[in-house]
Amino acid sequence: MQQNTDSIESLKEETRQLVGHQLPKETFYDFTHPNNRMLVAVTSLRAGYADVAYKLFQTIAEEGPKENANHHFAYVRSLIEMAEMDAQAGRFSQAETLMEQALEAYPESMGYMMSRVHLEVYLAYYKFYAGKKEEAMKQIESICKREQQKFEALPEHDAKSLIGPGLCYAIHQYALFYAVDGAWIQAVNKMKEMLPYAPAIDPAAVQEAERLLAGEKAEEAFNRYTEAICYNDA
């Protein structure tokens, strides 16, 4: 514990020098508070100090789940941030482990901050690139089926705004798994499954994509479908 405390104190001084001018001084008064460290970690990450940000996230994650909701959010988000950073560095197995821990501890009240569906898709992505392609494909298919059932249980307008973005994101990633392997026909067919669920579609672009597909230009059709379908929840 003393070693961890010393490490936190060292990180406090390092980050105070790096990003202290971007934050209220009070942020550094109680650095044992996980939310203060979270704020400093996020600020450090945005400022380009990824290594020190990772270390701060790690100190929060190492403390484990918390009873206090705000502290628990910091714990879960730290795992998620670390997973993303590991994935960016090509450490997909490590990213997979961290995201599994995050999802296990994920509280439904965190939904306003980050979508559980998106995190589940990230996990499938990590598995895919960690060499677990079959498991990743099964997982993404399961997510899609579950979200499709949720979509169908709601009025269309509500479904497209509440379920559509996450469902389309999952289908898009499913299609990308096919694209990575050069299976462009399967990739296009999977992209087309988004059409009933997407909040916004460009009909002219869809028609152009279909013409490309008919002309046996499946890769170009895939790219056009990507441009034709908008599902990002702002």
Automatic annotation (TrEMBL):
InterPro entries: TPR-like_helical_dom_sf (IPR011990)
Top-rank lineage group of the source organism: Bacteria
Protein name, entry field: Tetratricopeptide repeat protein
Source taxonomy: Bacteria, Bacillati, Bacillota, Bacilli, Bacillales
